[in-house]
From TrEMBL:
The gene is Igsf1. Keywords: Disulfide bond, Glycoprotein, Immunoglobulin domain, Repeat, Signal. It comes from Dromas ardeola. The keyword tRNA-binding does not apply. This is IGSF1 protein. GO terms for biological process: immune response-regulating signaling pathway. SUPFAM superfamilies: Immunoglobulin (SSF48726). Residues 3-86 form the Ig-like domain. Pfam families: Ig_3. It comes from the Eukaryota.
Length: 184
């Protein structure tokens, strides 16, 4: 059957002009290659390192913004296509938020974990990201927490948050420092 491939952005979130990010494509196979497409146009071809390929964007401009996806090939026709990850390039106008986790970074399976994204702005909403996922795990409004109930090994990973406001235009913060959650 066709292999399953995934795509995600690392670090997640909107990037500033001049900033950098990496588009990660992975597959359960390790003998083919990926073609990266942006807005339907072929951009780059990359061989696999193990079961993944990484496409770096550095010194980002508006030209780097767009809808990216990966095609997996082993010499002949395309065997699989990933979902699409949207890369956004915007100026950061808001202060950097701080992500905290209660009761802590290392929790027992079955516990409840609370993520809080704190930003010095009265009306900002924030996205909570988990590295490896194509979409934000949660949107939270100002002074709201994101609670993960009965955590399990699948909740482990590297979390971050990014905030924005909607006034006349959309304004973004930088992405917070990451937090690693371990479930034992």
């Amino acid at each position: 059957g066709a292999p399953t491939i995934s795509i995600f952005q690392k670090p997640a979130g909107v990037i500033p002009p001049g900033g950098s990010t990496t588009i990660c494509c992975s597959c359960q196979r390790d003998n083919g290659y990926f073609k990266l497409y942006k807005n339907g146009h072929h951009v780059r071809t990359l061989e696999l390192h193990g079961s993944k390929a990484e496409f770096s964007i550095s010194n980002a401009t508006q030209n780097d913004a767009g809808a990216y996806n990966c095609h997996y090939l082993e010499g002949g026709p395309v065997l699989a296509r990933s979902e699409t990850v949207e890369i956004q390039v915007q100026e950061f106008c808001l202060p950097e938020p701080v992500l905290s986790v209660l009761p802590g970074h290392d929790v027992a399976a079955g516990a409840d974990v609370v993520f809080r994204c704190t930003i010095a702005h009265p009306k900002a909403g924030c996205f909570v990201y988990l590295e490896g996922l194509i979409e934000a795990v949660k949107f939270i409004s100002k002074d709201e927490d994101y609670t993960l109930s009965h955590v399990h090994k699948g909740n482990e990973g590297r979390y971050s948050c990014q905030c924005f406001t909607r006034n006349a235009s959309l304004q973004w913060s930088a992405v917070s420092k990451t937090l690693d959650l371990a479930v034992r």
